[in-house]
Protein backbone atom coordinates (compact mmCIF):
# COMPACT_ATOMS: atom_id res chain seq x y z
CA UNK A 1 0.00 0.00 0.00
CA UNK A 2 2.76 2.40 0.89
CA UNK A 3 4.48 1.51 -2.33
CA UNK A 4 1.37 2.32 -4.25
CA UNK A 5 0.99 5.67 -2.53
CA UNK A 6 4.56 6.42 -3.51
CA UNK A 7 3.79 5.61 -7.10
CA UNK A 8 0.80 7.89 -7.11
CA UNK A 9 2.80 10.67 -5.55
CA UNK A 10 5.48 10.27 -8.18
CA UNK A 11 2.95 10.49 -10.95
CA UNK A 12 1.23 13.49 -9.50
CA UNK A 13 4.48 15.34 -9.15
CA UNK A 14 4.77 14.89 -12.90
CA UNK A 15 1.32 16.40 -13.25
CA UNK A 16 2.20 19.43 -11.18
CA UNK A 17 5.50 20.04 -12.90
CA UNK A 18 4.02 19.70 -16.35
CA UNK A 19 0.87 21.66 -15.74
CA UNK A 20 3.01 24.77 -15.79
CA UNK A 21 3.23 24.27 -19.53
CA UNK A 22 1.66 27.22 -21.27
CA UNK A 23 -0.05 28.18 -18.07
CA UNK A 24 -1.42 31.38 -19.49
CA UNK A 25 -0.88 30.86 -23.18
CA UNK A 26 -3.65 30.62 -25.71
CA UNK A 27 -4.38 27.16 -27.02
CA UNK A 28 -2.31 27.50 -30.14
CA UNK A 29 1.18 28.69 -29.51
CA UNK A 30 1.85 32.07 -31.04
CA UNK A 31 5.54 31.30 -31.06
CA UNK A 32 5.90 28.28 -33.28
CA UNK A 33 8.95 28.38 -35.51
CA UNK A 34 9.01 26.10 -38.48
CA UNK A 35 11.79 23.61 -38.49
CA UNK A 36 13.61 23.85 -41.80
CA UNK A 37 14.99 20.35 -42.00
CA UNK A 38 12.90 17.59 -43.47
CA UNK A 39 11.79 14.68 -41.38
CA UNK A 40 13.76 11.64 -42.45
CA UNK A 41 11.66 8.53 -42.84
CA UNK A 42 13.01 5.37 -41.28
CA UNK A 43 14.09 2.58 -43.53
CA UNK A 44 14.03 -0.96 -42.27
CA UNK A 45 17.65 -0.91 -41.13
CA UNK A 46 17.95 2.44 -39.36
CA UNK A 47 20.10 2.37 -36.23
CA UNK A 48 21.55 4.86 -33.83
CA UNK A 49 24.59 5.01 -36.12
CA UNK A 50 22.34 6.84 -38.61
CA UNK A 51 21.71 9.77 -36.28
CA UNK A 52 22.77 12.96 -38.07
CA UNK A 53 25.98 14.35 -36.57
CA UNK A 54 24.47 17.78 -35.87
CA UNK A 55 21.97 16.23 -33.42
CA UNK A 56 24.33 13.92 -31.61
CA UNK A 57 25.83 16.01 -28.82
CA UNK A 58 22.55 17.63 -27.71
CA UNK A 59 20.62 14.34 -27.74
CA UNK A 60 23.37 12.58 -25.80
CA UNK A 61 23.57 15.49 -23.34
CA UNK A 62 19.84 15.35 -22.62
CA UNK A 63 19.91 11.58 -22.14
CA UNK A 64 22.85 11.75 -19.75
CA UNK A 65 22.14 14.94 -17.85
CA UNK A 66 18.37 14.94 -17.78
CA UNK A 67 16.76 11.58 -18.46
CA UNK A 68 19.31 9.40 -16.62
CA UNK A 69 19.73 11.73 -13.64
CA UNK A 70 15.98 12.34 -13.34
CA UNK A 71 15.14 8.66 -13.82
CA UNK A 72 12.76 9.59 -16.64
CA UNK A 73 12.61 6.05 -18.02
CA UNK A 74 12.70 4.14 -14.72
CA UNK A 75 8.99 3.45 -14.47
CA UNK A 76 8.29 0.44 -16.66
CA UNK A 77 5.04 1.95 -17.81
CA UNK A 78 6.18 4.32 -20.54
CA UNK A 79 4.33 4.20 -23.86
CA UNK A 80 7.14 1.88 -25.06
CA UNK A 81 6.24 -0.57 -22.27
CA UNK A 82 2.51 -0.14 -22.82
CA UNK A 83 2.79 -0.93 -26.53
CA UNK A 84 4.84 -4.07 -25.81
CA UNK A 85 2.37 -5.22 -23.17
CA UNK A 86 -0.51 -4.51 -25.56
CA UNK A 87 1.26 -6.23 -28.48
CA UNK A 88 1.12 -3.17 -30.68
CA UNK A 89 -2.08 -1.71 -29.24
CA UNK A 90 -2.88 1.12 -26.83
CA UNK A 91 -6.20 1.49 -25.04
CA UNK A 92 -7.49 4.79 -23.73
CA UNK A 93 -10.30 5.87 -21.46
CA UNK A 94 -11.41 9.44 -22.09
CA UNK A 95 -11.81 11.16 -18.74
CA UNK A 96 -14.35 13.93 -19.39
CA UNK A 97 -14.08 16.37 -16.46
CA UNK A 98 -16.39 18.83 -18.11
CA UNK A 99 -19.99 19.99 -18.34
CA UNK A 100 -19.86 20.18 -22.16
CA UNK A 101 -21.92 17.67 -24.15
CA UNK A 102 -20.02 15.47 -26.62
CA UNK A 103 -21.61 14.28 -29.85
CA UNK A 104 -21.08 10.81 -31.28
CA UNK A 105 -19.13 12.41 -34.12
CA UNK A 106 -16.85 14.18 -31.63
CA UNK A 107 -16.24 10.94 -29.75
CA UNK A 108 -15.32 9.15 -32.96
CA UNK A 109 -13.10 12.07 -33.95
CA UNK A 110 -11.34 11.94 -30.56
CA UNK A 111 -10.59 8.22 -31.01
CA UNK A 112 -9.12 8.89 -34.48
CA UNK A 113 -7.21 11.89 -33.16
CA UNK A 114 -5.51 9.78 -30.47
CA UNK A 115 -4.44 7.21 -33.06
CA UNK A 116 -3.12 9.94 -35.34
CA UNK A 117 -1.16 11.76 -32.63
CA UNK A 118 0.30 8.55 -31.22
CA UNK A 119 1.45 7.37 -34.63
CA UNK A 120 3.04 10.76 -35.34
CA UNK A 121 5.51 9.64 -32.66
CA UNK A 122 5.65 5.88 -33.20
CA UNK A 123 5.97 6.00 -37.01
CA UNK A 124 9.54 7.13 -36.39
CA UNK A 125 10.29 3.92 -34.52
CA UNK A 126 9.15 1.74 -37.43
CA UNK A 127 12.12 -0.14 -38.81
CA UNK A 128 14.39 1.44 -36.21
CA UNK A 129 16.79 -0.59 -34.06
CA UNK A 130 14.67 -3.65 -33.37
CA UNK A 131 11.38 -1.85 -32.71
CA UNK A 132 8.93 -4.60 -33.73
CA UNK A 133 5.76 -2.62 -34.42
CA UNK A 134 4.41 -0.67 -37.37
CA UNK A 135 1.09 1.11 -37.12
CA UNK A 136 -0.04 1.27 -33.47
CA UNK A 137 -3.71 0.50 -32.99
CA UNK A 138 -5.15 3.03 -30.57
CA UNK A 139 -8.63 2.41 -29.19
CA UNK A 140 -10.94 4.29 -26.86
CA UNK A 141 -12.32 1.53 -24.63
CA UNK A 142 -14.45 3.71 -22.38
CA UNK A 143 -15.55 7.16 -21.29
CA UNK A 144 -15.46 8.29 -17.67
CA UNK A 145 -17.95 11.10 -17.16
CA UNK A 146 -19.81 12.39 -14.09
CA UNK A 147 -23.00 13.03 -16.06
CA UNK A 148 -23.59 10.29 -18.66
CA UNK A 149 -26.27 12.34 -20.41
CA UNK A 150 -23.43 14.50 -21.79
CA UNK A 151 -22.59 11.64 -24.18
CA UNK A 152 -25.15 12.38 -26.88
CA UNK A 153 -26.55 9.53 -28.97
CA UNK A 154 -24.74 6.94 -26.85
CA UNK A 155 -24.24 3.69 -28.75
CA UNK A 156 -24.89 0.25 -27.19
CA UNK A 157 -21.22 -0.74 -27.55
CA UNK A 158 -19.89 2.37 -25.79
CA UNK A 159 -18.62 1.75 -22.24
CA UNK A 160 -19.33 4.58 -19.79
CA UNK A 161 -18.05 4.96 -16.21
CA UNK A 162 -19.77 7.41 -13.89
CA UNK A 163 -17.88 7.03 -10.57
CA UNK A 164 -16.16 10.21 -9.40
CA UNK A 165 -13.60 11.30 -6.85
CA UNK A 166 -12.82 14.86 -5.71
CA UNK A 167 -10.20 16.72 -7.73
CA UNK A 168 -7.90 18.46 -5.24
CA UNK A 169 -6.98 21.01 -7.89
CA UNK A 170 -10.54 22.38 -7.70
CA UNK A 171 -9.94 23.66 -4.16
CA UNK A 172 -7.19 25.96 -5.49
CA UNK A 173 -8.91 26.64 -8.80
CA UNK A 174 -12.69 26.72 -8.18
CA UNK A 175 -13.35 27.18 -11.91
CA UNK A 176 -12.30 23.53 -12.35
CA UNK A 177 -15.06 20.92 -11.78
CA UNK A 178 -14.56 19.21 -8.38
CA UNK A 179 -16.06 15.93 -9.60
CA UNK A 180 -13.32 13.89 -11.27
CA UNK A 181 -14.63 10.84 -13.16
CA UNK A 182 -12.65 7.60 -12.81
CA UNK A 183 -12.52 4.26 -14.62
CA UNK A 184 -12.24 1.09 -12.49
CA UNK A 185 -8.81 0.35 -10.98
CA UNK A 186 -9.10 -3.33 -11.98
CA UNK A 187 -8.73 -2.49 -15.67
CA UNK A 188 -6.03 0.17 -15.26
CA UNK A 189 -2.53 -0.76 -16.42
CA UNK A 190 -1.19 2.18 -14.40
CA UNK A 191 -2.39 0.41 -11.24
CA UNK A 192 -1.06 -3.03 -12.19
CA UNK A 193 1.92 -2.74 -14.55
CA UNK A 194 4.44 -3.74 -11.87
CA UNK A 195 2.67 -7.07 -11.24
CA UNK A 196 3.62 -9.49 -14.05
CA UNK A 197 1.02 -12.01 -12.89
CA UNK A 198 -1.91 -9.60 -12.91
CA UNK A 199 -4.66 -10.49 -15.33
CA UNK A 200 -7.33 -8.00 -16.30
CA UNK A 201 -10.97 -9.02 -15.79
CA UNK A 202 -12.27 -9.84 -19.26
CA UNK A 203 -8.78 -10.08 -20.73
CA UNK A 204 -6.01 -7.80 -21.98
CA UNK A 205 -8.30 -6.13 -24.55
CA UNK A 206 -10.45 -4.77 -21.72
CA UNK A 207 -7.62 -2.92 -19.96
CA UNK A 208 -6.88 0.73 -20.43
CA UNK A 209 -3.32 2.03 -20.62
CA UNK A 210 -3.85 5.77 -20.30
CA UNK A 211 -6.39 8.53 -19.84
CA UNK A 212 -7.02 11.29 -22.27
CA UNK A 213 -8.04 13.66 -19.51
CA UNK A 214 -10.03 16.71 -20.59
CA UNK A 215 -10.70 19.30 -17.88
CA UNK A 216 -12.93 22.34 -18.14
CA UNK A 217 -11.06 25.63 -17.54
CA UNK A 218 -7.71 23.82 -17.27
CA UNK A 219 -4.69 25.84 -18.33
CA UNK A 220 -1.98 24.22 -20.45
CA UNK A 221 -1.29 20.51 -20.31
CA UNK A 222 0.16 17.66 -18.32
CA UNK A 223 1.54 14.29 -19.32
CA UNK A 224 2.91 11.15 -17.74
CA UNK A 225 2.62 7.40 -17.88
CA UNK A 226 -0.98 7.81 -16.67
CA UNK A 227 -1.93 9.71 -19.84
CA UNK A 228 -2.33 13.27 -21.07
CA UNK A 229 -4.36 16.09 -19.56
CA UNK A 230 -5.49 19.26 -21.24
CA UNK A 231 -8.34 21.71 -21.59
CA UNK A 232 -11.67 20.25 -22.76
CA UNK A 233 -12.18 23.01 -25.32
CA UNK A 234 -8.64 22.45 -26.64
CA UNK A 235 -9.46 18.77 -27.22
CA UNK A 236 -12.67 19.62 -29.08
CA UNK A 237 -11.27 22.52 -31.12
CA UNK A 238 -8.15 20.68 -32.32
CA UNK A 239 -9.68 17.23 -32.83
CA UNK A 240 -9.39 17.23 -36.61
CA UNK A 241 -5.97 18.87 -36.85
CA UNK A 242 -3.09 16.77 -38.14
CA UNK A 243 -0.43 17.60 -35.55
CA UNK A 244 -1.74 18.95 -32.24
CA UNK A 245 0.91 20.79 -30.29
CA UNK A 246 -0.06 20.25 -26.67
CA UNK A 247 -1.34 16.71 -27.23
CA UNK A 248 1.89 15.64 -28.94
CA UNK A 249 3.99 17.38 -26.29
CA UNK A 250 2.15 15.62 -23.45
CA UNK A 251 2.43 12.27 -25.25
CA UNK A 252 6.17 12.98 -25.40
CA UNK A 253 6.18 13.00 -21.58
CA UNK A 254 4.38 9.63 -21.64
CA UNK A 255 7.41 8.28 -23.59
CA UNK A 256 9.66 9.66 -20.82
CA UNK A 257 10.81 12.82 -22.65
CA UNK A 258 11.51 15.94 -20.58
CA UNK A 259 10.51 19.60 -20.47
CA UNK A 260 13.09 22.34 -21.04
CA UNK A 261 11.76 25.34 -19.09
CA UNK A 262 15.02 26.52 -17.53
CA UNK A 263 18.21 27.34 -19.35
CA UNK A 264 20.22 24.90 -17.22
CA UNK A 265 17.82 22.16 -18.36
CA UNK A 266 18.84 22.65 -22.01
CA UNK A 267 21.98 21.41 -23.75
CA UNK A 268 24.91 23.83 -23.48
CA UNK A 269 24.80 25.97 -26.59
CA UNK A 270 21.12 25.20 -27.11
CA UNK A 271 19.30 22.92 -29.52
CA UNK A 272 20.35 22.47 -33.17
CA UNK A 273 16.67 22.50 -34.21
CA UNK A 274 13.38 23.40 -32.57
CA UNK A 275 11.77 20.82 -30.31
CA UNK A 276 8.15 20.20 -29.37
CA UNK A 277 9.33 19.27 -25.88
CA UNK A 278 10.39 22.87 -25.16
CA UNK A 279 6.97 24.41 -24.66
CA UNK A 280 6.19 26.95 -27.35
CA UNK A 281 9.30 26.17 -29.40
CA UNK A 282 7.67 23.97 -32.03
CA UNK A 283 4.10 23.09 -32.96
CA UNK A 284 5.15 19.79 -34.50
CA UNK A 285 7.52 16.89 -33.89
CA UNK A 286 10.97 17.79 -35.26
CA UNK A 287 14.05 15.79 -36.27
CA UNK A 288 15.48 16.49 -32.83
CA UNK A 289 12.39 15.00 -31.16
CA UNK A 290 12.50 11.99 -33.48
CA UNK A 291 16.10 11.23 -32.62
CA UNK A 292 15.59 11.85 -28.90
CA UNK A 293 12.75 9.30 -29.02
CA UNK A 294 14.87 6.84 -31.00
CA UNK A 295 17.89 7.36 -28.73
CA UNK A 296 15.68 6.69 -25.70
CA UNK A 297 14.43 3.46 -27.28
CA UNK A 298 17.99 2.35 -28.11
CA UNK A 299 18.97 2.85 -24.46
CA UNK A 300 16.01 1.26 -22.68
CA UNK A 301 15.79 -1.75 -25.01
CA UNK A 302 19.13 -2.92 -23.62
CA UNK A 303 17.08 -4.17 -20.67
CA UNK A 304 15.99 -7.38 -22.39
CA UNK A 305 13.85 -8.46 -19.46
CA UNK A 306 11.84 -5.29 -20.02
CA UNK A 307 11.73 -5.61 -23.83
CA UNK A 308 12.21 -9.33 -24.43
CA UNK A 309 12.07 -9.34 -28.23
CA UNK A 310 15.10 -7.14 -28.66
CA UNK A 311 17.94 -9.39 -27.65
CA UNK A 312 20.82 -7.85 -29.58
CA UNK A 313 23.60 -6.47 -27.47
CA UNK A 314 23.93 -2.89 -28.54
CA UNK A 315 27.68 -2.48 -28.88
CA UNK A 316 28.30 0.01 -31.62
CA UNK A 317 26.33 0.11 -34.85
CA UNK A 318 24.22 -2.94 -35.58
CA UNK A 319 24.65 -4.55 -38.97
CA UNK A 320 21.15 -5.26 -40.19
CA UNK A 321 20.47 -7.09 -43.39
CA UNK A 322 17.33 -5.60 -44.99
CA UNK A 323 16.16 -9.15 -45.63
CA UNK A 324 16.85 -10.14 -42.07
CA UNK A 325 14.62 -12.85 -40.71
CA UNK A 326 12.93 -11.67 -37.52
CA UNK A 327 10.65 -13.35 -35.01
CA UNK A 328 7.31 -11.58 -35.38
CA UNK A 329 5.57 -13.77 -32.79
CA UNK A 330 5.63 -11.06 -30.10
CA UNK A 331 3.73 -8.67 -32.40
CA UNK A 332 0.80 -11.09 -32.70
CA UNK A 333 -2.40 -11.46 -30.73
CA UNK A 334 -2.50 -15.11 -29.61
CA UNK A 335 -5.67 -17.15 -29.31
CA UNK A 336 -6.58 -20.83 -29.10
CA UNK A 337 -9.39 -23.35 -29.52
CA UNK A 338 -9.13 -23.92 -25.76
CA UNK A 339 -6.90 -22.74 -22.91
CA UNK A 340 -7.01 -24.19 -19.39
CA UNK A 341 -8.31 -21.46 -17.09
CA UNK A 342 -5.10 -21.43 -15.03
CA UNK A 343 -2.83 -21.20 -18.09
CA UNK A 344 -2.38 -18.31 -20.48
CA UNK A 345 -2.38 -18.31 -24.26
CA UNK A 346 -0.25 -15.15 -24.23
CA UNK A 347 2.62 -17.39 -23.03
CA UNK A 348 3.04 -18.40 -26.69
CA UNK A 349 4.65 -15.10 -27.58
CA UNK A 350 5.89 -13.63 -24.30
CA UNK A 351 9.50 -13.95 -25.50
CA UNK A 352 10.49 -16.20 -22.62
CA UNK A 353 13.17 -18.75 -23.52
CA UNK A 354 12.29 -22.04 -21.79
CA UNK A 355 15.00 -24.11 -20.08
CA UNK A 356 13.14 -27.36 -20.78
CA UNK A 357 9.69 -28.60 -21.80
CA UNK A 358 8.43 -28.58 -18.19
CA UNK A 359 9.71 -25.05 -17.42
CA UNK A 360 6.89 -23.46 -15.47
CA UNK A 361 8.90 -20.46 -14.31
CA UNK A 362 6.85 -18.32 -16.72
CA UNK A 363 3.29 -18.54 -17.99
CA UNK A 364 2.60 -21.56 -20.24
CA UNK A 365 -0.06 -22.47 -22.75
CA UNK A 366 -1.92 -25.77 -22.20
CA UNK A 367 -5.34 -27.13 -23.10
CA UNK A 368 -5.84 -29.83 -20.44
CA UNK A 369 -8.26 -31.65 -20.21
CA UNK A 370 -9.11 -31.26 -23.92
CA UNK A 371 -7.81 -33.89 -26.36
CA UNK A 372 -8.04 -34.54 -30.09
CA UNK A 373 -7.49 -31.65 -32.50
CA UNK A 374 -6.79 -28.25 -30.90
CA UNK A 375 -5.28 -25.12 -32.39
CA UNK A 376 -3.37 -22.00 -31.45
CA UNK A 377 -3.47 -18.90 -33.64
CA UNK A 378 -1.51 -15.70 -34.23
CA UNK A 379 -3.25 -12.61 -35.62
CA UNK A 380 -1.01 -9.87 -37.02
CA UNK A 381 -2.07 -6.31 -37.68
CA UNK A 382 -0.54 -6.43 -41.15
CA UNK A 383 0.51 -8.92 -43.80
CA UNK A 384 3.86 -10.66 -43.29
CA UNK A 385 5.88 -12.95 -45.52
CA UNK A 386 6.53 -16.00 -43.34
CA UNK A 387 8.55 -19.11 -44.10
CA UNK A 388 9.39 -20.77 -40.79
CA UNK A 389 8.03 -21.43 -37.34
CA UNK A 390 9.75 -22.77 -34.21
CA UNK A 391 7.73 -24.50 -31.53
CA UNK A 392 8.84 -25.35 -28.00
CA UNK A 393 6.38 -28.00 -26.75
CA UNK A 394 5.08 -28.12 -23.20
CA UNK A 395 5.33 -31.59 -21.62
CA UNK A 396 4.74 -31.97 -17.88
CA UNK A 397 4.88 -35.74 -17.46
CA UNK A 398 1.33 -35.56 -16.13
CA UNK A 399 -1.57 -34.70 -18.43
CA UNK A 400 0.34 -32.75 -21.10
CA UNK A 401 2.45 -34.36 -23.79
CA UNK A 402 3.91 -33.40 -27.16
CA UNK A 403 1.37 -33.89 -29.96
CA UNK A 404 1.10 -36.98 -32.12
CA UNK A 405 1.24 -34.71 -35.19
CA UNK A 406 0.48 -31.16 -36.27
CA UNK A 407 -0.04 -28.91 -39.27
CA UNK A 408 0.92 -25.29 -39.92
CA UNK A 409 -1.92 -23.35 -41.53
CA UNK A 410 -2.19 -19.82 -42.87
CA UNK A 411 -5.15 -17.56 -43.57
CA UNK A 412 -5.62 -17.21 -47.34
CA UNK A 413 -8.09 -14.35 -47.02
CA UNK A 414 -11.13 -16.60 -47.02
CA UNK A 415 -10.15 -19.73 -45.15
CA UNK A 416 -7.30 -21.79 -43.73
CA UNK A 417 -4.77 -23.51 -46.03
CA UNK A 418 -1.91 -25.82 -45.17
CA UNK A 419 1.52 -24.34 -45.82
CA UNK A 420 3.32 -25.99 -48.75
CA UNK A 421 6.56 -27.96 -48.67
CA UNK A 422 6.62 -28.13 -44.87
CA UNK A 423 9.85 -29.65 -43.61
CA UNK A 424 10.35 -30.34 -39.91
CA UNK A 425 7.13 -30.69 -37.93
CA UNK A 426 9.16 -32.17 -35.08
CA UNK A 427 7.74 -33.13 -31.71
CA UNK A 428 10.92 -33.32 -29.63
CA UNK A 429 10.74 -32.14 -26.04
CA UNK A 430 13.25 -29.72 -24.46
CA UNK A 431 14.09 -27.89 -27.67
CA UNK A 432 12.67 -25.73 -30.44
CA UNK A 433 11.23 -27.68 -33.38
CA UNK A 434 11.80 -25.72 -36.58
CA UNK A 435 9.54 -26.15 -39.59
CA UNK A 436 10.34 -24.43 -42.87
CA UNK A 437 7.85 -24.03 -45.70
CA UNK A 438 7.29 -22.17 -48.96
CA UNK A 439 6.95 -18.45 -48.04
CA UNK A 440 3.37 -17.19 -47.72
CA UNK A 441 1.97 -13.70 -47.30
CA UNK A 442 -0.62 -13.73 -44.57
CA UNK A 443 -2.09 -11.98 -41.54
CA UNK A 444 -2.85 -15.12 -39.49
CA UNK A 445 -1.14 -18.41 -38.73
CA UNK A 446 -2.30 -21.51 -36.93
CA UNK A 447 -0.79 -24.63 -35.48
CA UNK A 448 -3.35 -27.43 -35.57
CA UNK A 449 -2.28 -30.16 -33.16
CA UNK A 450 -3.56 -33.72 -32.74
CA UNK A 451 -3.04 -34.96 -29.21
CA UNK A 452 -1.18 -38.09 -28.22
CA UNK A 453 -3.79 -40.52 -26.88
CA UNK A 454 -5.45 -39.24 -23.73
CA UNK A 455 -2.87 -36.48 -23.13
CA UNK A 456 -3.58 -32.82 -23.82
CA UNK A 457 -1.19 -30.51 -25.66
CA UNK A 458 0.66 -27.36 -24.72
CA UNK A 459 3.29 -24.91 -25.98
CA UNK A 460 5.85 -22.83 -24.09
CA UNK A 461 6.92 -20.56 -26.95
CA UNK A 462 6.03 -20.25 -30.64
CA UNK A 463 8.29 -18.18 -32.90
CA UNK A 464 7.40 -17.10 -36.41
CA UNK A 465 10.13 -16.07 -38.82
CA UNK A 466 9.17 -13.30 -41.21
CA UNK A 467 11.16 -11.49 -43.84
CA UNK A 468 11.52 -8.02 -42.39
CA UNK A 469 10.50 -5.69 -45.20
ZN1 LIG B 1 5.71 19.46 -20.68
TrEMBL record:
Keywords: Signal. Residues 320-467 form the F5/8 type C domain. This is F5/8 type C domain-containing protein. InterPro entries: FA58C, Galactose-bd-like_sf. The keyword Signal applies. Residues 1-30 form the signal peptide. Pfam families: F5_F8_type_C. It comes from Paenibacillus terrae. The keyword Signal applies.
Amino acid sequence: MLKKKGMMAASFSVVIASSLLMGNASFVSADAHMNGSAVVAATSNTTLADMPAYLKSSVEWVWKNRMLTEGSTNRKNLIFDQIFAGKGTLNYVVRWQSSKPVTLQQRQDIARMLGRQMNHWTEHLQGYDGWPYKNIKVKVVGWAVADPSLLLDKQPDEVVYTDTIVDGLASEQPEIPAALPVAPNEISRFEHFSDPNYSYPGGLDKRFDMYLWATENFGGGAGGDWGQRMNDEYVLSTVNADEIEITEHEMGHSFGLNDFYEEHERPPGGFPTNTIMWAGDSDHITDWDIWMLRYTWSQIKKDTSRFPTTTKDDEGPIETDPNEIVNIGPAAIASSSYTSSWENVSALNDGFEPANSNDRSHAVYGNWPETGTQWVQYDFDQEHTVSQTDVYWFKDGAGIDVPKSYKIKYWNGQGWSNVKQAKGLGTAADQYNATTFAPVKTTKLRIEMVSMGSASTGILEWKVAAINK
